[in-house]
Here is the input.
Amino acid sequence: ERGGYRHFMLKEIMEQPQAVTAALRDRVDFGRGLVTLPDLTLTDRELAGVSRVVLIGCGTSLNAAHVGRHLVERLAGIPAEAESASEFRYREPFLDPSTLVVAIGQSGETADTVAAMETVRQSGARLVTICNAPNSQAARLADHALLMGCGVEIGVASTKTFLSSLTLLNLLAMRLGTARSHLGSAASRKLVEGLARLPGNVAQLLESADDVEPLARSYYGRNNFLYLGRGINAPVATEGALKLKEISYIHAEAYAAGEMKHGPIALIDHAMPTLAIAPQDGLYDKMANNIQEVKARDGDVLAVLTQGDDRLSDLVDHSVFIPETAPNLTPLLATVPLQLFAYHIAVRRGCDVDQPRNLAKSVTVE
Ligand code: F6R
Here is the structure.
């Protein structure tokens, strides 16, 4: 049942091209270069009336929400915010009928997310869920359920459902952007071309999945890691750190790299390796500076870079390359090597990868 893989987590990492394909299926008109997203049954007029988007979730789904905030602002031009469902539900959140709340969850049963959705329902705001369980509480509570359809995820650490969430968030942001004429047809067509290539990009990345293993062999004995990313990839750093913490029990901290100089830089020395996510996007030069700051303090840097990036690969200690893609899709690619890194480290440390201590697949208590 593990399809020849040693663990469900590895099987599910390897299934990610299909997970992305499933999220795109019947939701994109590739010929016309348009996102249709028919399961979001709101008219263009209703979508154009959305003045604010609030994205909520927990754990990995919260990290997806933070990526989603960037996507909605960038592709739809609508103010957006992301927050942990467990914090959101205990505030008195401002919600009105022009607010669209997007609740993200693999299981659709996370108690904090479900409770937050109940609050939203009473407020009159519109409620969408992105989830992988058609019969879940989340799917029942939402006005619109965008189902991942990527098959059950058995490993406790979320992997393929994260990429599904990110794919669906791209579609949602594009659908909103088109409805309110923020995203023109040429821009939409270009983004759809990127989406069409995405499953192949992820598959290509997985062909060299074994390249990450030697890195794990060199670093599995370390006790602390720092993860750095910026902009849309800052939440990817958080997700990479979360994966490492939960399955290998190694302490890992993630920072938006611009924050490093305000404190965490004091931690850097030879014993503290840094995972840096530095694709060639608008923040590349900023990330390059941050990496230089780490190198200047004798820290090892393992970097996720765009294929062909000789400049940074010469500077860092180890590089893993991702195929070139549109900036809105880099989070999907940059996540994969971080999942594999956490996986191989946990295996080397003899941890129970699929059933990490103290964790349950769905957290139905508060
Ligand atoms: C991370 C992980 C947890 C879940 C979180 C939310 O790998 O498994 O952090 O992401 O408990 O679960 P869902 O997405 O089911 O609401």
